[in-house]
Fold these 3 entries.
Entry 1:
Amino acid sequence: MPSPNAQSQAPVKVVAGHHYAHVDAFSLLPPDTLTRLVTAESLARVLRAERFNVARFETANDVLSLLNYPGFFEEAFPALYESWHVNLTTGRVGYRTYRDSLTPPILHRKELMLAEDHPPRSEFQALTKAAEEIGLFQDSTRIGFREPWLRLVQEKGYQIVGHEFIPIANDETTTAPAEATINGSPVARHLTALVRHGFSAPVQALARYGFINPSIQVLDYGCGRGDDIRGLAANGVEAYGWDPHYAPDGPKCEADVVNLGFVINVIEDWDERTEALRCAYALAKKVLAVAAMLASEAVQPRRAYRDGFLTSRNTFQKYYTQIQLAGFIAEVLDEEPIPVSPGVFFVFRDKDLEQNFLAGRQRNTTLLQRLERSASVRVRPPRIDRIQIKYEANREPVDALWQTWLRLGREPEKTEVEQLDSLLQSFGSLSRALRFTADLKDKTLVARARESRIADLSVYLALDQFAKRKPYKHLEPGLQRDIRSFFGQYSTAQLYAREQLFKVANTEKINAACMSAAEQGLGWLMEGHSLQLHASLVERLPTILRIYIACGAVLYGDVQTTDLIKIHIASGKLTLMKFDDFEGRPLPRLVERIKLNLRSQDINIFQYPEELDRPYLYLKSRYINEEFSRYAEQLAFDQKLSELKLFNFSDYGPSPQMFREVLEHHRWTVESFDLVRSKTIPTLDAPCGCYLKYRDLIECGETQLRTHRPNLPKESDTYAALYELAINVLDPVIEYFGSIKLTFGFCSPELARAIQHHIARNSTSMQLTKRTATATMCASG
């Protein structure tokens, strides 16, 4: 870490060209810096100490950031709560809040921003010294955000207590990070490998939503060779199948879940096709999954046959569009199919399960994590001993009650409470237990949970407007309780949902919601045009945007099966994009793009085969946030790529081929999540800088021309060094003075033995050593 700015009287922390100052030291800033700060405060309309307590100055341009760290003195590594990014030249102000972030940016080395005589400075200094001794600052990509930082501290064998690192030793109570969840259900990690490489699309969808687990039965109707059945059985799921060709003696009996995967599209007879669909649905106790080939997936057919085509192998294929497939299922079964991905639909026999599924798709699944995190960092006043004693005696049932309260967003009823008997025995009634819990816990979290749950229900009820309205008495009991609690009457809830749905057509409201989302770090905003974000962030969007996207899901299916979502602000369109290994690559490649026109109800699917050199997604960190896997590494990669100033990343950026060629020309290559010097050996006539070739720097000395001694560099690093010399020294000289003549160049060990005299002292030279190679140059002009 660089030392504080020597030219300033104020204690300043310097990181990568950014200067940080704490509010307690603002008065010590130079007059011109203080003037810039006052201007920034005025433009952002915030007051120091009240809304922000740290200022960051960028030395390269006239930009300031006003940062709010509420726990600057109380927390060892305080978390950023909100920030204002102010451009003094344009007057533009950008705002970002981290209030709900599970892993906000954190601050290190805060003693550097305090004066020598500031009381807590020595304590902060000791904390930093301890962190250095433990080796916590060695990997900069793991220290900038709270959760990766805490994991790193734990990996080193420590925990943070106050402003000290305490060894964990053999404390087995320390827990590992929680299992990830999808739609409120645990991710089936034991199925991951098979889901990725072996299971069919409908079975993957069923597993993703928790409909496949060891406690249920699965019937594969039209199981083919039985690949799905073997995979499910290997994972402890009771699965069996029937197929008219491969398994004609297989059981055709009822099951909780029935899969009719890619069956109806290979049956050429209409009556037989509809009969297969009806039979499969009749055998489903809970849900039927139906999948068929879509037109966009079809290879060119050989010849038309009935309502489909005969392939080159003389097999029949019926290719549907998404809308055609939905219409066929609805017509045959007289039930509304629910799209979950392209060509895959669910049809529910269990209507309570259907309502729970639809409501659950709109559920903010990370709400509890955020509220729990807020509760864990909140400083609570000491409590009266008798209250604490009673809580300790009933910790488990009280905490479970609190979790249920936050999950529901309302006071739970008796049928919804776990360990009810324990609570009644200790408190006498549920209402008393609730009052005790409310007094003990943070009531503001209940308000936030209620607000979030109303948003979830609003999205669900808004989408319900597209279907036939269900009578209140036919609603699932939990949903009935929610409507009574949040809206009072079903009719009121329906009216509110319609109002929210109609807002989707209001461009101004969509634009305002997109701006609000960007302020929360939810996506990349192109003002007035679009908001692009990762699908995992959808549940945190403002309600109007969630409804906007959910309207697209009515056409397409589950948007969570894609990677990026682009909300077109003015055109009523939605673009969904899938990439090859989005999480694992700094430059994922586009596999599929789906354009949804909400106004015309059109869906167009564009696929990008690998042989077409799939486009890269540049600056991926724009579309994710600090909670995303490997975000810090991605951010560092994107910053390094941008700082090269080799590309224009507006619109879609350069083509893949151009990107690779330009990188190689400038001796860079992508290695994992880093940009490193290329390991290739260029040809002698390849450009080296703007005006020269490598040959010019290698075949330019008199001795080499006379003796023809071998003089080729063998190491790729040497070529990188020659390139650096060209762009940093020779190119500027040529641009300023004109053409130059190189009288000395690269010298290999073989050539060096033939040189009898030293280089003339009166020549202007530059020497650069790389392992066994020495590059010596002289410019005259």
Entry 2:
Amino acid sequence: MIALGLRLVISGGREAVTRLVVLAVGVALGVGLLLTAVAATNAVTAWNNSHAWFWTGSYREPAGPAKGVAPLWWNTTGDSYDWQPITRFDLAATAASSPVPPGIPRDPGPGQYYASPALVTLLRDTPADQLADRYPGHLVGTIAQAGLPSPDSLVIVIGHTPAQLASTPGSVRVTAIASRLPGRVLNRQGLTSAPPDTGIPSGGIDLTLSAVALGVLAPVLIFIATATRLSAARREQRFAAMRLAGASRRQVSLLAATESMVAAIGGLAAGFGIFFLLRIPVASIPFVGQPFFPSTLALSPSDIAAVAIGVPAAAAVAALLALRRVQISPLGVARRVTPGPPRAWRVLPLLAGLAELGFFVARDRPLTVSAETKALGSGFALIIVGLIVAGPWLTMITARLMARRTSHPSTLIAARRLGDDPKAAFRAVSGLVLALFIGTVAVVGLTTQDAKDQTQSASPAAAPVVTDQLADQTVSYPSPRDRVTTGPGPAAPAAALLDQLGKIPGVQGLLVVRADPKLTLPGGPLGYTPNGPGTPAAPVPAGLVSCAQLATIPALGRCPAGATVAAFPTDGFAAQSGLLGVGTAGLTWPAATVPAARLDSLGVDAINVATNDSVPTVETVRTVLEDAPAYPAIGTPYTIGDLVAQDDSTDDAYEQLANTIILVSLPIAGCTLAAGIAAGLADRKRPFSLLRLTGARLAMLRRVVALEGAVPLLAVATVAVGTGFAASAEFASVAQDHPMVAPGPGFYLLIGGAIVVSLGIIAATFPLLVRITGPEVARNE
């Protein structure tokens, strides 16, 4: 029977060949998208894991054999250029056996550095006094892909002598390069600091991959399922005729499975070709805020095996399931027996998914990241399954209501057809309904997060200010035994440095914060509540500033009338708590009793430089501050914009993820809709041609087709969008700790545009209606 099935597929006439090609093309597109989505999740994992060595020195590695390994002095800092983050590693090997970071052949010696290709290009294209002068020595090589998360990563590894790093703030001795991201076990062993570029935390990567699976894989799988059911009704009729001619159930099953597997195998091979064509363009998409290396967009042997075996097997199973009515009653299929109507129990999975999310809202207790990911992932998965399961019942109810309230022939025909087979009607629009739900959740979640960030973050200061933090008075993590910390910088060289900064074109003001470890400011006026809104305010560590200097930077506040010295928050504390973004321009700092002449004898806590916001000025100031040997900074000089960009980086990555999911799922849903509508028309050639012969006008048939597509689309889409809002409200309460915020007009335009495009896709099938309703069709049938 398998040989007969192959012969029928190949020599079954023009219709059989056309059916085979259509099935293969549909499966090929679905498989290509499926492989691309799977490879993209692998690329996200590889991108994240490539950040592991960035965490070197940030946590205590588990005890292990370090025999014969010389210590390596290690210092990780962040840097930036024009808001582009740069990750900087300063290291000093104590012997040839010191560990070597990935991507470089050996540890750089004093006066040498390795840089990523993107940073090498930036260094070459940028004036030296704005960037290259920050890095001592000369370039000796580029960092290979093994040491970089992305082709756009800006990373530099600089060599020093052990004596230089031993006296540099933040340096630590290590005997191994970190090989994994810190997780829950490592956190218990003591997280001492965090690199500027951390990747996605362990819980966040699970959430990211879950979002990809639900948002991209689900529509793709629906599209593949739709493709494997093309011409299902015609196949049922052919196999029913075979059963009436004497074929056994087993023989018909083998023929059906053979036909579907041949098309699936052909589509599978073409799908792998589509994947390799899409691989390079997809790798360039900043899926998590950065593009991928094309080699990381790869498939594991298990991925290949699962798709290569699963797709043909699924096609065969789908064909067998589609023949249930043939197996039970071949004569009934030949006479087009109406299937049983869907029951109301189909809404239970949807209600169960909403109830699961609602349980965690009512529980009102915080969850761990892992538990939250599992709870939200399972809840959203159940809602997605619930929408698919409940769709046919909702379609049937809508069709019955429409039939009761109309007397127009086209509306009655469409309503009766929808009521007779709501499963087939919903199947065509299921992908778009799912995409609308996913898009609603993504957009509402981002809108809520943006609103939360705006309430928590401050408005930036009126003028861009470059700040160089010189004293570490607010250590957040327990420092390891051999980590070097620092106090205030020396007082004497400040005048020379300020004179150098003042000569830079575009510098508008200078403010030196002098150290006074006993001085504090009340936290209330500054809005500093360390335990969250509504909790008691805490004192803020403060230093001393000259009122004459403060007057040159109005964005940072002012002194009381007649004062010469004022208390000012230490910039290290201000950077960590966000105090410099609460609208400091309107604050009056309390006067201090210290004489202005005494300020020059106090150590320097930080230096603030107001600029004209031009990139050359900001970056030249940053370079001068980093190059000041008498003032070893805790980190790179920063602007308030840098802090905002750093705080927003994770949100930007998730926003990019959500946009990608929306932009991918909607076109896939459109393909599913087009395939479903076209397949439905092909399966109903004879009824439509008979209606034409009985006098039905083509315009009426077009209205029937439009209603059969538009009614389930609009009905279930309304439920999907409403469910998306309900699920988003529960998600906001559980995961975002903020009331849900409705999106702006752009979201509703997006939804309306998607529906209009969908209606356009339905209308695009009208020319096919002309071709399949001629009198010759009824005669040939």
Entry 3:
Amino acid sequence: MASVIQVANRALTKLGAARIISLSDDNKQARAVASCFEDLRDDELRAHRWQFAMKRIELAALSAAPTFGYKHQYALPPDFLRIDMVDDRYPAAVMDNYIDAEYLEWTIEGNVVLTDIGAPLKLRYIAQVTEPNAWDSNFREALASRIAMEICEELTQSDSKKQAAMNDYRRAIQQAVRIGAIEKPSVMPPDNQWIISRL
């Protein structure tokens, strides 16, 4: 059974630091891990398309339409971290160097999605998964390495240990991509000025 403490102690072991029993322990290691654990967990979930964190939902439109710019708005789910797909469309390249190319099919403002797409809005997103048993083993290893990198200076002041944790992180991500724990869709490269000038 995986646990938050197992991930925390994995990070501490990478630094050669003493293990802890709880994040509320009254010691330097526990305070260092507790100060960054949840932020780094969510940041790591947002950084990649982890399959275990993918969710699909159909959203009903809110009764109030946006003040201007779009026809509909939809409240994001409470566990939302990042949009992966809206109405069967992956986010497209934004041609921000193209004159008058300001309209987007959808955008996020606050905790709502604004769009002209009618209800129900199909949304695929990365969810905030807080239960360690639901995490992929590569995610746990990547998170432990991220935590080790974050707290290394405070606990060890060792550049070599920080570099080792960074290498562990890269290996965990590469392994996750290789085995399919991180989904990699085909993505069109963004249009650059050379291409746009020929439109």
